[in-house]
Write a sequence for this structure.
């Protein structure tokens, strides 16, 4: 089925709003939502991006670039999820506390600028995943236009491609805390170590990967097609990660898979990152 009718429904929905603030991470979904909102609302649309030690390295730069290209007012707010005790404890609903914090900041900014509604980029597929953040959104009255108009992740990517957005095929980029097993405390030092380890892989030319943090052990996930190249770079990568503070560096033979740490959750709950 063509994505065209969904694109039209989304435009009609957004154009019916008086004004909106978009919770904008710079990822695939929020980028397309922001693009569509700017086309429907023009200057009555504002983007808000938060940045913290849990933010992947390139996300803020990518968000800045797209917001500038779209000509949208872009508000950047520094935050510190680790200061939220319930988040730092890293329970299975950790994302609830992150999103609750995000949407609180968004609602405050929207109220200050007298914007009518806060919009988030969740899509239909997210409703079947382990997404505690959706509960926080519901509690705070956040709307999800992509869900309301039936967009799946594949639809968002196709609509983004048709719109000429270079985010259309960008790999998912969840927060760095998603690399830490539930129950292991989230600290600034842990996040810094993960960020440094992933910079090593990025600088080596890998594009889709995760470094899962297991105390002194780093478990690397890459797609099967990249395993041979990573093994060839084995000593170079492992030496670099040992300098960062990992005593052991392993390659996960199951390959890259979003949400691999969610194997401890009930079967119906899906990937987080």
């Amino acid at each position: 089925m063509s994505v065209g009718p969904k694109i039209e429904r989304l435009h009609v929905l957004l154009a019916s709003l008086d004004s909106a603030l978009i919770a904008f991470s710079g990822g695939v979904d929020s980028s397309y939502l922001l693009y569509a909102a700017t086309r429907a609302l023009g200057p009555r649309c504002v983007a808000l991006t938060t940045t913290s030690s849990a933010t992947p390295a390139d996300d803020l730069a990518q968000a800045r670039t797209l917001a500038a290209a779209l000509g949208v007012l872009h508000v950047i707010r520094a935050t510190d999820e680790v200061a939220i005790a319930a988040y730092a404890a890293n329970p299975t609903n950790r994302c609830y506390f992150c999103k609750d914090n995000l949407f609180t900041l968004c609602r405050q900014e929207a109220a200050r600028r007298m914007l009518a509604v806060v919009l988030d980029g969740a899509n239909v597929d997210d409703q079947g995943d382990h997404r505690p953040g959706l509960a926080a959104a519901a509690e705070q009255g956040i709307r999800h236009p992509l869900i309301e108009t039936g967009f799946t992740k594949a639809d968002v990517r196709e609509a983004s491609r048709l719109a000429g957005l270079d985010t259309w095929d960008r790999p998912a980029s969840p927060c760095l805390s998603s690399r830490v097993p539930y129950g292991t405390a989230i600290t600034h030092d842990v996040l810094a170590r993960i960020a440094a380890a992933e910079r090593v892989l990025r600088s080596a030319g890998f594009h889709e990967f995760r470094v899962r943090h297991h105390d002194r052990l780093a478990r690397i996930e890459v797609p099967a097609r990249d395993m041979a190249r990573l093994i060839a770079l084995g000593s170079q990568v492992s030496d670099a990660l040992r300098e960062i503070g990992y005593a052991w560096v392993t390659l996960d033979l199951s390959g890259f898979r979003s949400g691999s740490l969610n194997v401890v959750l009930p079967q119906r709950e899906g990937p987080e990152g």
Observations:
- Residues 4-163 form a domain with the Rossmann fold fold (CATH 3.40.50.620).
- Strands lie at 20-23, 45-51, 73-78, 117-119, 210-214, 217-221, 248-251.
- The chain has a mean pLDDT of 93.
- The chain has two domains: 4-163, 176-264.
